[in-house]
Amino acid sequence: MALRTLSAGPAAALDKDLMSTGAFSLDQLMELAGLSVSQAVYKVHPPSKGQRVLVVVGPGNNGGDGLVAARHLWYYGYQPTIHYPKQPKNELYQRLVTQLKNLEVPFIDDFTSGLNDTDHIVDAIFGFSFSGEVREPFSSIITALEETSVPVTSVDAPSSWTIEDGPPDSGPGKTFQPAALVSLTAPKPLVRHFKGRHFVGGRFLSPSVAKKYDLDLPDYPGVDQVVELDGNRQKL
Question: Exposed e or buried b for every residue in 110-137, given b needs 16+ CB within 10 A?
Fold first, then answer.
């Protein structure tokens, strides 16, 4: 079964539906997204490959998903470290930060030192709604993610990619190909440019919502919150 992709307009509308008629709160959706990301990381990089995980967090909801994923990874036995250069004042994000600090998860200011002292990276900078020019400090970070040999798992979109067209024609992110991608809710059109391991995390969509947006509900194995797809967006 091929999974249909979800473009920008419908993706935004679906999020609104989930929080209105679906009765989900933003907190709930972020928790489910972060849990999905953490499970994908466990599959591509189990703790036996190295427990150090650097989570690079952006200022929006994609970053919030990364903070939630970091908390779950800590409970799985990883040693997450957070780089969060643009922290918003929003109460939700501040609570996620406090939860991690209560676990003594370190927050670092020096991205380069964190990059040199990790076994895996979670890219939670920009999500499907990103557009425009990448600015500092994120342009330097994305360039480093392009160049590093450390495997990267991206949340919903490789940072700097646009939902429809994928990688930019020039600048930071042009050659960025993370090792793994976790598409949240449904794959986005950018996946046609992606070459790594691809997971979908959307085990909270009702059949009625899936029908409204003409989406496929994959068969999630067991209690997993993610399912891995092959290069043709077929379920493995």
Answer: ebeebbeebbbbbbbbbbbbbeeebeee
